[in-house]
Design brief:
Oligomer: heterodimer
Strand content of chain B: 15-25%
Number of domains of chain B: 2
Largest interface: A-B, 52 and 50 residues
Shape of chain A: globular
Structural class of chain B: alpha/beta
GO molecular function (chain A): endonuclease activity; hydrolase activity; metal ion binding; piRNA binding
Radius of gyration of chain B: 31 Å
Number of helices of chain B: 14
Shape of chain B: elongated
CATH class of one domain in chain A: Alpha Beta
CATH architecture of one domain in chain A: 2-Layer Sandwich
Strand order of the largest sheet of chain B: 6-7-5-4-1-2-3-8
InterPro entries (chain A): GAGE, PAZ_dom, PAZ_dom_sf, Piwi, RNaseH-like_sf, RNaseH_sf
Pfam families (chain A): GAGE, PAZ, Piwi, Piwi_N
Keywords (chain A): Cytoplasm, Developmental protein, Differentiation, Endonuclease, Hydrolase, Magnesium, Meiosis, Metal-binding, Methylation, Nuclease, RNA-binding, RNA-mediated gene silencing, Translation regulation
Strand content of chain A: 25-35%
Structural class of chain A: alpha+beta
Main location (chain A): cytoplasm
Largest sheet of chain B: 8 strands, mixed
Distance between the termini of chain B: 57 Å
Helix content of chain A: 25-40%
Helix content of chain B: 40-55%
CATH architecture of the largest domain in chain B: 3-Layer(aba) Sandwich
C-alpha cells in the first residue's frame, strides 16, 4: 500500500473514534497540562466522582426551581436530569437544533431538491414516530400553597389527585407533562399532608405543545431513554448497549458490546427515530493492568512516555459507577494515598474514599493517578479536574497501537463491519425489542405514541457518472467500484513534471530496494509522459542526522524532488525530513518505507502510484472531470487537533487555482488554545485570492467553501462567526468586488445509512446516490451524497449542509459540483467520501500537526507537497 | 430523601458530620461488615440509597427492598442495576437485587430466610394498626437472624429548633427512649430475640442525658435454628408486587465463568508465546548478526528441536515450544498462571471449560497458536 494506507495508519489522533472530541473553531477544550505536586492543595479541588453526585445531591433536590439552568428550551431541571445531565454529559445541542439557515437562503425556501439522475428505491435507518390524531403534549405549572420544598412530597401531594391527572405523567417537581388536557386552564385542588395540614395545589396550563415543538422533541428523547432503560440496555456515553451477548476477542482482552445509537428529531416530513448499530469496544482490563503489561514491553526510561502515548485521549469507564472520562493527563507525582478535600471540608485519601464509598480496595498504592478535565458544569461554575485511580478504571476503545495492528483490526472488523442486510436486521432488533416489551409498549400507549415497525423507504437519485479526462483521453469507469486506476494506467497525464534532477537517499541495507525502485520508475514513467533522468543516488547511515546532513549538502536549486527510502516506519526520522523540506528548504519530498517495496509481485503497482504522487508533489496534474461552472474558486477547510500534547489545533486551507480544479493553493493556520480560528482563515482567503488573481488575471466571481471538521453542536458558531468573517474578508479585497459565496459544512460522521433494494435483498447504494428528501432537516438546505464505494460493510453517506449561499445555484448544480469534486483527489484514482479540497486540507493539516508543527514555506503553496 | 432533608433543616443549629442519615446508613454498613450476612432486606427502602450502598458489600448475595410507595423506588431503582464494569469482570459472588412494592403489615414468602432485616426510620411512619402487625410480620413471620430498627428519639427534639410536634409531618409518633425500649424489649421477648440499644447523632456536650438523636435497636434471634419447622404453617401467597429485579453477572454462573476462563487462557497464551518468540530471536541474535540469515537459522533450530522432541515434549514438558509456524503452549503451563488457577480451581475444570472454545493440540494438552500473524503486514 502506498501513502493512503500509511496516512491512515499513522493518521488517527488517539481517541477520535470513541470520544466526542470538540472539533472546529468554537469550543476548543482546555486540557490539563501542568503537573501539580503530589499533595493536592485545597484551592485546587480535585475530586473523585462523589456519592452525592450519583444520588443527585441534596442541594439539587432541595429546590430545582431555584437553580437557573443554562438551557434555552422550556424544560426544567428535573427533566434535564432524566436526559443528559444524569449521565455526566454536559448539555450540548448535539443536533444543532435551532440553527435555521435555510430561511435566509432565498432560492431554496420553496424547494431544496435536485432533479437529475435516475430514481432509486432506498431504505434508511429511520422509523417514523406517530402520535394519535390531534395529539398534543400539555405542560402545566404546579404551585403549592403553603410552599412545599421537598420534591417527593410535592409529587406525593399532587398524585393524591390521580383521578384528575391520570396515570401517565412526567413531573419534575414543578413542571408537569400530561398527554391530556384538564377541564380548566387553572385547576385548584387540595391535598392533606399526613399530619393533617391542608395544601392548596394550583395546576396551571402553561403550554399546549404540538408534536413538532422543540420541547416535545426533547420530551420524546427523554421518554425514549426511559424505554431503553426499561429494556435493560446499558448506557455508555450517549449510546445504549446490550451487555448480555458480548463478542469476546480474548487475544487482546477486548469485548465488543452490540448496541444502538439513537435520536428522535424533526426531519423533512415527519418526526423520526434515527437508529443505528453501534459497537462499544470495552476491555476487561483496568488501566493499571494495562500499565503493567506495558511496563514489561518497554524500557524503563520510556515507560512514562509510552503510557502517555497510549493512554492520553482514551476514554475510560469507572468500575464503581457508570461514568466515562477522557484521560487528559497522568500525574506520576500523585498516588492513591494522596488526599483531597471533600465537599464537607474534611480531608480524605483516595484509598479511604473508595473503600468507604464503594467498598473498592485499592491494592497498588504506588500507582499514579489519571487526570480528566471535567467538561461538566455544575450550575454556572466549571468543576475542576477529576482524579481517577487506574486500578478502578476500565479501558474502552482502541489504542493507536491496536489500530495499527492489522490482525486485530481484521478480527474486530468481522464483528463491527456489517453488510447492509445484517445491519438492517440489527437495527430492526431495536424496534423488535420495543414492540415485544410489554411495559415499554404500555408506556408508549399511555402517551399516545408509537413507532413505525418498518424502516423508512423512499426514493433517491443516482446522478450520472463522471467522465475522467486525461490529456485528451476520456475514460469511463465502472460506477460500481468508483475506481479508474486500471482504466487510466497507461494514459499520459494532463501535466507531467520532469524528474531531471532528483535525489534518491537510502541506507546501505536498502541498496537493492533503491535499485528496484529506480528500474520500476523507468518502466512506468514513460507512458505517463514523465521525463526522467537517473537519480543522484546517495547512501546514508540509518540515523536522522545523517539524512539531514545529506539533504543539506546535496540539494541544489535545481533539485526537483527528494526521495527517501526509510528502513522503518519510525516517525521521528520521517518528521525530521519533512520538517526540513517543508520549512527551511522547501523542496517536494517522497518518503517510502523500504518494506513497502519489498514484495516483487506488488512492486510495479506501488511504484506506479508513487510516480503519480511524486508528480503531484512537483506541481503536476493527473486527471480532471468536466466543471461547467466558470470563474469559481473552491475552498476546502479541515482541522487537526493534537489530542496528545494538547498544544495546538491546525486548520488546513486549500483553494483551487484554475478552472479545471487541478491545481490547488494551500496554507494552514496554527492556533494555540483558546484562539479563534477565523482570523487565520481570513488571511488564508486573502492570499488565496491574490494567488488566484496571479494565475487567472481576474478574481473569481464565485467562491464555494467546503468546511469539514465541524463538531456536533458547533454549527451555530460557524454561522454566526466564521461566515461573517469570510464576508468581511471579501469586502477588504476591493470596493467593487462582490463575489457570490457559498459555505457548505461537510460531515462524514453521521448515523444515517442508506440501503438500496435490489431483488429481494439489500445492497449499498451505488456511488453518486443523492438524497435530499425525507431524512434531511426542514430548517436546513442540506443533502446526502454517497460518493465512494466500499468493499465490505455499509457505505456511509456524507452530509452536506449549505449554511450560506448567495450563489443562486440550483440545488442540483451544487450537488453535482460536490460529487464532481469527490473525483479530484489525486492520491486515489477513484471517488472519495468528501470533495477533494476537504481531503487535501485534511492531509495538509495532518502533516503539519503530526510532523512539521509550523506553517510550511509558502514557496510550496501551489503544489500538493503534503500528499 | 425528604425525610433526610427535613432533618437536615431542623438540625441546622446542631450540625452532624457526616449528616445524620449517612451516619445511620454507615451504622448498617458497619454491622454488615461485622456479621457478613448473605441475605439482607431493607424495609421502607424509599429511594434505595441504603440498598445502593449495600450492593458494594461483598458478603451480600441477596438484597431486597420493600416500600409502600412504588414511584419513589422506581425513581432511582436503576442505580441498583449492574454496571458495565460488573460485566467486564464478573464478581466472584452472585448478587440478586429485588424491589418489592408492599407493606410491612403484610406477609409475603419472598421475605423469608433473611440474615438481616433493616428498618431505618420506618416504624414512626406506621399507622397504629400497621404498627400492631409489624412485630408479627417481621419477627414472627420473616424471622431473620438479625433486625435493626432505628427511630427518632423524641427527647432530642428540644435541641432541634423548629420542631414543634414531630420531625417530619408524616410521623405518626416519636418515642422517647423509655417508650422505644419497652416496645423493643416486649417484642424481643415475645419472639425470642435479644435486643441491644444504641444510636447515632451524639448530643452536644453538656446535654448528654437526652441520648442519641436517632435511637437504634439491634435484635438478634436467640435460637437461629428454630425458624425451619415453623415455616410450614406460613402462608405462601404473594402479597407484594415485584417492581425491579437485577441479577448480577457472577463467576458462579457457568456462562460468565467460561468466558472469563477462555479469555484469560487466551491472553496468558499470547503473553507466553510473545516472550517465547522474543527469547528465540534474541538467542539467535547472539550468534548471528546477519539479519537475512537470522530467520532461516531460527526456523531451522526450532524445527530441529521440535521434530526430535515433539512427542515427548507435549507429553511431559510444561514448557512451550515452537514447531514450524505453530506455538504449543501446554495447558499445565497456562494453569500455573495465578489468575487461571484462581478462576478454575482444578486443572480438570480448566480443561472442561475451554473445550470447544480454544484450539488445542491433537492430544488436548496444549493450546496452539500461529506464529504466521506476527511476520505479516504490521
Amino acid at each position: 500500500m502506498t501513502g493512503r494506507a500509511r496516512a491512515r495508519a499513522r493518521g488517527r489522533p488517539p481517541g477520535q473514534e470513541t470520544a466526542v472530541p470538540p472539533v472546529g473553531a468554537a469550543s476548543v477544550q482546555q486540557t490539563f497540562s501542568s503537573h501539580p505536586s503530589g499533595h493536592r492543595q485545597p484551592q485546587q479541588p480535585c475530586l473523585p466522582p462523589s456519592l452525592s453526585e450519583e444520588f443527585g445531591g441534596r442541594g439539587r433536590q432541595r429546590g430545582p426551581q431555584n437553580v437557573p439552568k443554562p438551557l434555552g428550551l422550556q424544560i426544567s431541571a428535573g427533566f434535564q436530569e432524566l436526559s443528559l445531565a444524569d449521565r455526566g454529559g454536559r448539555r450540548r445541542d448535539f443536533h444543532d437544533l435551532g440553527v435555521n439557515t435555510r430561511q435566509a437562503i432565498e432560492h431554496v425556501r420553496e424547494s431544496k431538491t435536485g432533479s437529475s439522475g435516475i430514481m432509486i428505491k432506498l431504505i434508511a435507518n429511520y422509523f417514523r414516530l406517530t402520535s394519535r390524531p390531534q395529539w398534543a403534549l400539555y405542560q402545566y405549572h404546579i404551585g403549592y400553597n403553603p410552599e412545599m420544598e421537598a420534591r417527593r412530597l410535592r409529587s406525593a401531594l399532587l398524585f393524591q389527585h390521580e383521578e384528575l391527572i391520570g396515570k401517565t405523567h412526567a413531573f419534575d417537581g414543578s413542571i408537569l407533562f400530561l398527554p391530556k388536557k384538564l377541564g380548566n386552564k387553572v385547576t385548584e385542588v387540595f391535598s392533606k399532608t399526613r399530619n393533617g395540614e391542608d395544601v392548596k395545589i394550583t395546576i396551571t396550563l402553561t403550554n399546549e405543545l404540538p408534536p413538532t415543538s422543540p420541547t416535545c422533541l426533547q420530551f420524546y428523547n427523554i421518554i425514549f431513554r426511559r424505554l431503553l432503560k426499561m429494556m435493560n440496555l446499558q448506557q455508555i456515553g450517549r449510546n445504549y448497549y446490550n451487555p448480555n451477548d458480548p463478542v469476546s476477542i480474548p487475544n487482546h482482552r477486548l469485548l465488543v458490546w452490540p448496541g444502538f445509537t439513537s435520536s428522535i428529531l424533526q426531519y423533512e416530513e415527519s418526526i423520526m427515530l434515527c437508529a443505528d448499530v453501534s459497537h462499544k469496544i470495552l476491555r476487561s482490563e483496568t488501566v493499571l493492568d494495562f500499565m503493567y503489561s506495558l511496563y514489561y514491553q518497554v524500557e524503563e526510561q520510556r515507560f512514562r512516555d509510552a503510557c502517555a502515548k497510549e493512554l492520553i485521549g482514551l476514554i475510560i469507564l469507572t468500575k464503581y459507577n457508570n461514568r466515562t472520562y477522557r484521560v487528559d493527563d497522568i500525574d506520576w507525582d500523585a498516588n492513591p494515598q494522596c488526599t483531597f478535600r471533600r465537599a464537607d471540608g474534611s480531608e480524605i485519601s483516595y484509598v479511604d474514599y473508595y473503600r468507604r464509598q464503594y467498598n473498592q480496595e485499592i491494592t497498588d498504592l504506588n500507582q499514579p493517578v489519571l487526570i480528566s478535565q471535567s467538561r461538566r458544569r455544575r450550575g454556572s461554575m466549571m468543576s475542576g479536574p477529576v482524579v481517577l485511580i487506574p486500578e478502578l478504571c476500565y479501558l474502552t476503545g482502541l489504542t493507536e497501537k491496536m489500530r495499527n495492528d492489522f490482525n486485530m483490526m481484521k478480527d474486530l472488523v468481522v464483528h463491527t463491519r456489517l453488510p447492509p442486510e445484517r445491519r438492517q436486521h440489527e437495527i430492526g432488533r431495536l424496534i423488535d425489542y420495543i414492540q415485544k416489551d410489554d411495559s415499554v409498549q404500555k408506556e408508549l400507549r399511555d402517551w399516545g405514541l408509537s413507532f413505525d415497525s418498518n424502516l423508512l423507504s423512499f426514493t433517491g437519485r443516482v446522478v450520472q457518472a463522471e467522465k475522467i479526462l486525461q490529456a485528451g483521453n476520456v475514460f469511463d469507469y465502472n460506477p460500481q467500484f468508483a475506481d479508474w486506476s486500471r482504466e487510466t494506467r497507461v494514459a499520459p497525464l494532463i501535466s507531467a513534471k520532469p524528474l531531471d534532477n532528483w535525489l534518491l537517499i537510502y541506507t546501505r541495507r536498502n541498496y537493492d530496494i533503491a535499485n528496484t525502485l529506480l528500474q520500476n520508475l523507468f518502466k512506468v514513467t514513460p507512458s505517463m509522459g514523465i521525463r526522467m533522468n537517473k537519480a543522484t543516488m546517495i547512501e546514508v547511515d540509518d540515523r536522522t542526522e545523517a539524512y539531514l546532513r545529506v539533504l543539506q549538502q546535496s540539494i541544489t536549486p535545481d533539485t526537483n524532488i527528494v526521495f527517501c527510502i526509510l528502513s522503518s516506519s519510525r516517525k521521528d526520522k520521517y518528521d525530521a525530513i519533512k520538517k526540513y523540506l517543508c520549512t527551511d528548504c522547501p523542496i517536494p519530498s517522497q518518503c517510502v518505507v523500504a518494506r513497502t517495496l519489498s514484495k516483487p509481485q506488488t512492486t510495479l503497482a506501488i511504484v506506479t502510484k508513487i510516480a503519480l504522487q511524486m508528480n503531484c508533489k512537483m506541481g503536476g496534474e493527473l486527471w480532471s472531470v468536466e466543471i461547467p461552472l466558470k470563474q469559481v474558486m473552491v475552498v476546502g477547510i479541515d482541522c487537526y487537533h493534537d489530542s496528545l500534547a494538547g498544544k495546538q489545533s491546525i486548520a488546513g486551507f486549500v483553494a483551487s487555482l484554475n478552472q479545471t480544479m487541478t491545481r490547488w493553493f494551500s496554507r494552514c493556520v496554527l492556533q494555540s488554545r483558546g484562539q479563534e480560528l477565523v482570523d487565520g482563515l481570513k488571511a488564508c482567503l486573502q492570499t488565496a485570492l491574490r494567488d488566484w488573481f496571479k494565475w487567472n488575471k481576474y478574481l473569481p466571481s464565485r467562491i464555494i467553501v467546503y468546511r469539514d471538521g465541524v463538531g456536533d453542536g458547533q454549527l451555530n458558531t460557524l454561522v454566526n462567526y466564521e461566515v461573517p468573517q469570510f464576508l468581511d474578508c471579501l469586502k477588504t479585497v476591493g470596493k467593487d468586488y462582490n463575489p457570490r459565496l457559498t459555505v457548505i459544512v461537510v460531515k462524514k460522521r453521521v448515523n444515517t445509512r442508506f440501503f438500496a433494494q435490489s431483488g429481494g435483498g439489500l445492497k449499498n447504494p451505488p456511488p453518486g446516490t443523492v438524497v435530499d428528501v425525507e431524512v434531511t432537516r426542514p430548517e436546513w438546505y442540506d443533502f446526502f451524497i454517497v460518493s465512494q464505494a466500499v468493499r465490505n460493510g455499509c457505505v456511509a453517506p456524507t452530509h452536506y449542509n449549505v449554511i450560506y449561499d448567495t450563489s443562486k445555484l440550483k440545488p442540483d448544480h451544487v450537488q453535482r459540483l460536490t460529487y464532481k469534486l469527490c473525483h479530484m483527489y489525486y492520491n486515489w484514482s477513484g471517488v472519495i467520501r468528501v470533495p477533494a479540497p476537504c481531503q487535501y486540507a485534511h492531509k495538509l493539516a495532518f502533516l503539519v500537526g503530526q510532523s512539521i508543527h509550523r506553517e510550511p514555506n509558502l514557496l510550496l503553496s501551489d503544489r500538493l507537497y503534503y500528499l | 430523601m425528604d425525610k433526610n432533608f427535613q432533618e437536615e433543616q431542623f438540625t441546622g443549629m446542631i450540625k452532624f458530620t457526616p449528616p445524620l442519615y449517612k451516619q445511620r446508613y454507615q451504622f448498617v454498613k458497619d454491622l454488615v461488615g461485622k456479621y457478613k450476612p448473605k441475605k439482607v432486606a431493607d424495609l421502607g427502602c424509599a429511594d434505595c440509597t441504603l440498598l445502593w450502598m449495600l450492593k458494594f458489600c461483598n458478603c451480600i448475595e441477596v438484597l431486597a427492598g420493600l416500600d409502600t410507595c412504588a414511584s419513589v423506588m422506581k425513581e432511582k431503582m436503576h442505580t441498583l442495576s449492574p454496571l458495565p464494569g460488573d460485566y467486564l469482570q464478573p464478581a466472584e459472588r452472585s448478587l440478586t437485587v429485588t424491589l418489592h412494592h408492599g407493606s410491612v403489615a403484610h406477609k409475603d414468602p419472598c421475605m423469608l430466610g433473611f440474615d438481616l432485616v433493616t428498618c431505618i426510620e420506618l416504624i414512626e411512619h406506621l399507622e397504629e394498626s400497621e404498627l400492631e402487625k409489624f412485630p408479627e410480620v417481621v419477627f414472627g413471620f420473616m424471622a431473620p437472624t438479625m433486625v435493626v430498627i432505628s427511630t427518632p428519639n423524641s427527647e432530642f427534639n428540644p435541641l432541634l429548633p423548629g420542631v414543634t410536634v414531630f420531625r417530619h409531618p408524616d410521623h405518626k409518633f416519636e418515642w422517647d427512649r423509655a417508650q422505644f425500649q419497652s416496645w423493643a424489649l416486649d417484642t424481643a421477648k415475645r419472639y425470642d430475640y435479644t435486643v441491644e440499644f444504641t444510636g447515632v447523632g451524639s448530643p452536644p456536650t453538656g446535654m448528654e442525658d437526652v441520648g442519641f438523636c436517632t435511637q437504634i435497636g439491634v435484635f438478634v434471634k436467640k435460637y437461629p435454628q428454630t425458624s425451619k419447622p415453623a415455616q410450614s404453617e406460613k402462608p405462601t401467597e404473594a402479597a407484594y408486587e415485584t417492581v425491579f429485579k437485577a441479577v448480577y453477572p457472577s463467576l458462579k454462573d457457568e456462562k460468565y465463568l467460561q468466558n472469563a476462563v477462555v479469555s484469560e487462557v487466551m491472553f496468558t497464551a499470547q503473553v507466553i508465546k510473545q516472550s517465547l518468540l522474543d527469547h528465540l530471536v534474541s538467542e539467535q541474535e547472539k550468534y548471528n548478526d546477519n539479519p537475512t540469515e537470522r530467520k532461516f537459522q531460527l526456523q531451522r533450530s526450532v524445527n530441529c528441536f521440535s521434530e526430535d522432541l515433539e512427542t515427548q515434549a507435549v507429553e511431559k514438558s510444561t514448557e512451550p515450544f515452537v514447531n514450524g509456524n505453530v506455538v504449543y503452549i501446554p495447558l499445565k503451563k497456562i494453569f500455573s498462571s495465578p489468575k487461571v488457577t484462581r478462576l478454575c480451581g482444578t486443572f480438570e475444570k480448566l480443561c472442561k471449560l475451554i473445550t470447544g472454545k480454544v484450539t488445542l493440540s491433537t492430544d488436548g494438552s496444549a493450546v496452539i497458536l500461529n506464529t504466521e500473524h506476527e511476520n505479516e503486514e504490521n
